[in-house]
Design a protein that fits this description.
Blueprint lengths: L13 H15 L7 H14 L6 H18 L1 H12 L2 H15 L7 H13 L4 H11 L3
Organism: Polyangium fumosum
Protein name: Co-chaperone DjlA N-terminal domain-containing protein
Pfam families: TerB (PF05099)
Length: 141
């Protein structure tokens, strides 16, 4: 089976798109459940980032691949790889925003999800105050 290409006409290159998708995936599993609303938001975000080139069966394959990578490498290694790939503070902030969007898709942020937001944000080099500001904005405050 050929790998799923995340190439799009967006200005981000494929490794950066993959890092964004990986971070959204990690966020979706923060509380151990990939709920229906989170999965729909994740799918819409992936579709948007890839100009709608990822078909539903490819999305399932992508999720399977990301789950295997998480289990094989661990969350910390994936986060470090994403930070190196994204590089700039602006790209890291955008990545955290996308991750928060997946987490808040079901209308609530659990303690585990809040911890994952901070783990992702810290790994991406963002300060605690900036992370909290992004969470407040996502919560509508």
């Amino acid at each position: 089976m050929a790998p799923i290409s995340l190439r799009s006409s967006h200005t981000l290159d494929e490794p950066k798109l993959e890092a964004l998708v990986e971070l959204m995936y990690l966020a979706a599993y923060a509380d151990g459940v990939f709920g229906a609303e989170e999965k729909r938001h994740f799918a819409r975000s992936v579709q948007s980032l890839t100009d709608r080139k990822v078909l539903p069966d490819q999305l399932e394959q992508l999720i399977t691949r990301l789950d295997a990578a998480r289990k094989a490498s661990g969350t910390a290694a994936l986060l470090e790889g994403a930070r190196q790939t994204l590089g700039s503070p602006g790209a890291c902030r955008a990545a955290l925003s996308l991750a928060i969007g997946v987490i808040t898709a079901d209308g609530a942020i659990s303690n585990a999800e809040r911890a994952m937001i901070h783990e992702i944000g810290t790994a991406l080099g963002l300060d605690r105050e900036g992370i909290e500001e992004m969470v407040r904005e996502a919560e509508g405050g």
